[in-house]
Design brief:
This protein is of the alpha/beta class and 307 residues long. It contains twelve helices and eleven strands. Helix content is 35%, strand content 19%. The radius of gyration is 18 Å and the shape is globular. Bound molecules: beta-D-ribofuranose (BDR) and calcium ion.
Length: 307
């Protein structure tokens, strides 16, 4: 079964790889890619998304949206992703962006969809999806599931409390968590299990593939090894969220009540009640474990099949 998917991203090294995985997967019918400012500014994330799609020869609409959060100021994450957002890996320019704004296009797609039929995948600050659903809340009824790379059960990677995507637009994340549709969370605790190591990059390079596989390996090689993991490797966040739609058997998960802190020094911290202690009904599915070897094999096989 191929499910209709609208994907919002901020490429971003790991966003680029997640896009290629989504394009490669027969389980995913990627209908629209929308882009926000995030890892770098929208003036870079949009051309990056266009280039990533162009390299794969994908013909689907890609358009820009929010260049800043609902509240507060824009901040980028160039330490991990480089000034250009793709770790210095230069891709050929992609096809032009479609006219219009992300939130309008998301609403248009949802309006013509059957109830409970469309999956939203969010890989950056949640602003574009939140704008779409906040301005026409009834459209949430068209959504099957919202899959997000966001948040952390434990410590953050932007502040001690908050993960980057959640910290960049907590109000937007709160709108998605409260919209009444099932939300699936790929948090930092999950993505910590998907470490990019020199051995895994070498295994990708050993595969027979085309330009996308080469660019994927180059982008992974550009990721700075993380202090959090003793410089053993870097966590590959966003593709974990896409992999959930492709191979759910690789994951274990549990139902949780999830919310996000919007005020104070812990702004952006996700509160995730794994044991039901709050007695608040579950609104999310927390992805807890990942079969990392199978995940990287899936990634390699999928992207090797692209151009
Ligand atoms: C998330 O933030 C970004 O830097 C990555 O692209 C990922 O979406 C991880 O915290
Ligand atoms: Ca991202």
């Amino acid at each position: 079964m191929s499910r209709p998917v609208l994907l919002d991203c901020d490429p971003g090294t790991d966003d680029a790889i997640a896009l290629w995985l989504a394009l490669a997967a027969p389980e995913i019918d990627l209908q629209l890619v929308t882009v926000a400012g995030g890892n770098v500014g929208l003036e870079r994330t949009l051309p990056n998304a266009r280039a990533v799609l162009g390299l794969a020869g994908a013909a689907l609409p890609v358009m820009g949206g929010a260049d800043r959060p609902l509240i507060g100021v824009f901040r980028s994450e160039t330490q991990v992703h480089g000034m250009d957002g793709l770790g210095g890996v230069v891709l050929p320019e992609g096809p032009p962006a479609a006219p219009g704004l992300a939130a309008d296009a998301i609403r248009e797609r949802l309006r013509t969809a059957a109830p409970g039929s469309v999956t939203l995948v969010g890989l950056g600050p949640a602003t574009n999806f939140a704008l779409a659903l906040a301005t026409e809340p009834a459209l949430a009824g068209r959504v099957a599931e919202i899959v997000l790379m966001t948040g952390a059960v434990g410590e953050g990677n932007w502040t001690a409390a908050a993960e980057f995507n959640a910290a960049m637009d907590p109000e937007a994340l709160a709108i998605l968590l409260g919209c009444g549709r099932p939300v699936t969370l790929a948090t930092l605790d999950l993505t910590a299990q998907a470490l990019v190591t020199p051995e895994r990059i070498a295994a990708l390079r050993a595969l027979k593939g085309g330009a996308c596989l080469h660019a994927c390996a180059d982008i992974l090689a550009a990721l700075p090894p993380s202090r959090r993991f003793g410089h053993r490797g870097a966590p590959l966040h966003d593709p974990c969220a896409v992999a959930w739609l492709v191979a759910p058997d690789l994951f274990t998960h549990r139902a949780v009540a999830a919310s996000v802190v919007c005020e104070g020094p812990d702004r952006g911290r996700t509160r995730i009640d794994r044991w039901g202690r709050s007695k608040i009904p579950a609104n999310a599915r927390l992805l807890e474990t990942l079969d990392a070897e199978a995940f990287f094999a899936l990634l390699g096989a999928g992207i090797a099949g692209l151009r």
